[in-house]
Amino acid sequence: MSKETQEGITVKKEENFSEWYQQVIQKSQLADYSTVKGCMIIRPNAYHIWQEIQDDFNKRIKKLKVRNAYFPLFIPESFFQREAEHAEGFKPEVAWISNTEEGERLAIRPTSETVIYDSYSKWIRSHRDLPLRINQWANIVRWETKATRLFIRTREFLWQEGHCVYETEEECDKETRIYLEEYKKLCEDLLAIPVIIGRKSEKEKFAGANYTLSIESIMPDGKALQMGTSHNLGQNFAKSFKINFLGEDGKEKLPWQNSWGISTRLIGALAMFHGDDKGLILPPKVAFSKVVIIPILFKKTQDKVLKKAKEIEKKLEKQNPILDDRDYSPGWKYNEWELKGIPIRIEIGPKDIEKNQVILVRRDNNEKKSVKILNLQKEIEASLDIIQKNLLAKARKQMESKIVLVKDFSEFKKAIKAGMAVKAHWCGVRKCEDEIKDKSGGAKSINTPFDQQKNLKERCFHCNEPAYGTWYFAKSY
Amino acid sequence: MSKETQEGITVKKEENFSEWYQQVIQKSQLADYSTVKGCMIIRPNAYHIWQEIQDDFNKRIKKLKVRNAYFPLFIPESFFQREAEHAEGFKPEVAWISNTEEGERLAIRPTSETVIYDSYSKWIRSHRDLPLRINQWANIVRWETKATRLFIRTREFLWQEGHCVYETEEECDKETRIYLEEYKKLCEDLLAIPVIIGRKSEKEKFAGANYTLSIESIMPDGKALQMGTSHNLGQNFAKSFKINFLGEDGKEKLPWQNSWGISTRLIGALAMFHGDDKGLILPPKVAFSKVVIIPILFKKTQDKVLKKAKEIEKKLEKQNPILDDRDYSPGWKYNEWELKGIPIRIEIGPKDIEKNQVILVRRDNNEKKSVKILNLQKEIEASLDIIQKNLLAKARKQMESKIVLVKDFSEFKKAIKAGMAVKAHWCGVRKCEDEIKDKSGGAKSINTPFDQQKNLKERCFHCNEPAYGTWYFAKSY
Question: CB-based burial of residue A372 (10 Å sphere; 0-12 exposed, 13-18 middle, 19+ buried)?
């Protein structure tokens, strides 16, 4: 046993979600706190998920002709000043390095628009250089003062940030949406995370953007978690960074830009949705090991059972199985691998061998069944597929149960107080949002679904002015 | 055309290696200088190479049961003090962040032994937790004051660092060597870079290690480039970070550790070896595109030629081909893709189509031949294979031509002055190395091959004491 406690989760998800989350993350060995305040260690079980996210997303963006690159960690202070809103928005969170002999302070990137667009202004000359589509995988530093929450709010995290430049507003607009749709697919297909997708309010958009699109989820505690954003930057940064190009008509023009990102926060969302009182449940597609094999060992039969277990291990090579032949009781092992979230457990004892079968146990619903060894590969593949789909369906149901439609501000406040997210007709105006936040103990607008972004006959649930679409509101992480 | 100059390399590799290198890196769009002093931008053509290195190495270490993880960028100053030699060795190069409210300064990692071993001391309890094998891919900051050279010396670079912990000295010793051998294979098989492999001297070993193994190459200018290291840390860090475990015998013990790394420096080595006066030559295995197709377009036949070119593009999908149908002359395009190092060029004009053939041109030796379109796929695959092997053979010959065996210090100085690396019998003693460096204008020991690490009858070429093996010496990057 390691120094870390091997006891299970000591609180119930329903009863103390915040404490439950912290225990699941640490005890399943996804992540650990660092001695460095506000920082986290992403342990192998979680880093594996991040690599699966990277592989999946790299394939998606390759098809969209995006290429990966890497830009410096450091940003000169003067770059930050150039786009006024952007500078203002990020100032409170920037960490600076102190030993620069050059006089100017250097920021550690809280996001890379400024340092990347400085290069773009050197590289882009003609319409032939556009569209330019570059993505980077990088670590990001935001000097948060709020409480640390592993994967959700730490001073350093990992992400990808895409930065594209286009000749026309139309292309920029269209692709800003396309990257968001890819995020949605990645969340649903790979991580079994349901999302609500839409446009953020004026108040909540990215500092320096014309508008921001987002994917979000409502977590089991009713709080919203923003998981990915795609910003249409218009020509704002092109102006401040003097990015311009010679058009086909021989005229000097300003290009249009977007930027978009997802982060290791997704791993936190995965744990929040798919964990239960026994621990984590890993969606099969991102599990570091899809199957654990537990031999039931008695003195007389252990050689035979172990031999068969090894045969099965070999047979299931594709699922990267763990054969747990350590000197612990089967029950102890069941607990350990349930805690860590391995999607399928195979139990094999002397009686099973006589019948040429094993017991297959699903982590997501505890369903047990006997399976003939002959059919095992096929059964495992089918079960993994079912588990993956079931997790998404369950999570979607969970999310929807946390959203309530409200008609007025009194219903709104009641719902928020009860730990729910709400959907309501709303005007979208910044001043109205400020007031809502103040009077509801911190509820913020999440986003407005695309098909509902229009002037409605309805009125704003709060200020009674004409509504502009239906919106989600919630307290948020 | 982009703002960057599209002219070719303006100096010869033989005549001004340093200027040639800088031009190749920038003009082939591998990397660019950042406005941030000492930092570089790794552009997509080079980042692709880095991803190939990552994929290749991840496969190698997975077989060795190493798992990837991610540790914080920041290291508290007090961690640094714990291993005295280590602290002393890295002190001059550390960048610090200034806005920590906690009182203690935070270093930006110049290497992660200390921050990782702080976690290991919490995670490791019993012999059952060992061996522990973790690797991380990360950015590293060393506040260099020497001149910046893209990929070779920058204040930030990317690398991997492996950190393993073992019960016994024997295991640690054995695996310290195994990781180095994997580096050698990666360099030779993937990057076509020849290496010399061996142990570093006492003076040149890693700060805090018992000994350091390295892979190095002698570059075309006679300077040595260290490309990968594997350090046996003994129990030094285990002591300072209080990592201990309960042995099978029930006794508390100190474990043994190693750490090992390669970096984006390898991309610099690749360019140094495989470039020529026309630009870069990419080894096929790491080329972002293995083939460029240039249609020879005349007004009358261009539709037909373009159609055939597109068919070929589709046929060669596996090679990620570029079909360059831009409105430039064929000659201009040849220059551009030679500069960028695409391994194979296919020329296709109206006369070729009549004969159902194309012209295939190898970048590495300019060899041209006609190939029937029917056989094209097979021919391309065979040619790529030959180019890959030829590049390694050429580079090895190049490297060997830069190494001369010397008998005494007068020969040594003459060789170093002539821009050569040397091989000589040497005592290995630090004081002797200090004197050699002083008196030779900066030559350092590189390493000593494994099969030659023994007491010889021969004497040290410099101090005439008994030699301990034969060693490489050179000026170095």
Answer: exposed
CATH code: domain of residue A217: 3.30.930.10
User: A361 lies in which domain range?
Assistant: 291-383
- CATH number of the domain at A429, please: 3.30.110.30
The average pLDDT across B381-410 equals 98
Q: How would you class A383 by CB atoms within 10 Å of its CB: exposed for 0-12, middle for 13-18, buried for 19 or more?
A: buried
Asked whether residue A459 is assigned to any structural domain, the reply reads: yes
Q: Which among B50, B97, B155 has CB closest to A98?
A: B97
Strands A344-348 and A357-362: antiparallel
Residue A11 lies in a domain: no
Domain check: are A76 and A225 in the same one? yes
Q: Which two tokens stand for residue B274?
A: 């495989």
How close, in Å, is residue B122 to chain A by CA atoms?
7
- pLDDT tens, A27-83? 999 999 998 889 999 999 999 999 999 999 999 999 999 999 999 999 999 988 888
- In DSSP notation, A34-47 reads -SSTT-EEE-HHHH
Task: State the Cα torsion B270-B272-B278-B280 to the nearest 10°.
Answer: 20
Rounded CA separation B71/A322 (Å): 25
Instruction: Indicate if A257 and A303 belong to the same structural domain.
Output: no
Residues of A in contact with B128 (CB under 8 A): 1-2, 326
B91: contact with A, CB 8 A cutoff: no
B130, B124 Cβ separation under 8 angstroms: yes
Q: How far apart are CA B199 and CA A216, in angstroms?
A: 53
Q: Collect all residues of chain B within an 8 Å Cβ-Cβ radius of residue A4.
A: 122-123
Are B47 and A34 a contacting pair at CB < 8 A?
no
* Residue B85 Ramachandran class (φ > 0 left, ψ -120 to 50 alpha, else beta): alpha
A99 touches B at CB < 8 Å: yes
Element (H, E) at B433: helix B430-439
Average pLDDT over residues B86-111: 85
Q: How far apart are CA B378 and CA A10, in angstroms?
A: 62
Q: Taking CB atoms and an 8 Å cutoff, what residues of chain B touch A54?
A: none
**B119 at the A interface (CB within 8 A)?**
yes
Spell out which residues of chain A touch residue B74, defining contact as CB-CB under 8 Å. 36, 39, 155-156
How many Å apart are CA B216 and CA A391, to the nearest integer? 50
Contact assignment for B72 to A34 by CB distance below 8 Å: yes
Looking at the complex, report in whole angstroms how far the Cα of residue A141 sits from the nearest Cα belonging to chain B: 9
Q: Which two tokens stand for residue A365?
A: 């619903």
Portion 140-169 of B in contact with A at CB < 8 A: 141, 143, 155-156, 158
- Among A40, A44, A156, the residue with its CB nearest the CB of B134 is A44
Q: Is A284 domain-assigned? A: no
Q: Which residue of chain A comes nearest to B142, CA vs CA?
A: A99
* Digit-coded pLDDT (tens) for B50-60: 999 999 999 99
User: How far apart (Å, rounded) are the C-alpha atoms in residues A197 and A230?
Assistant: 11
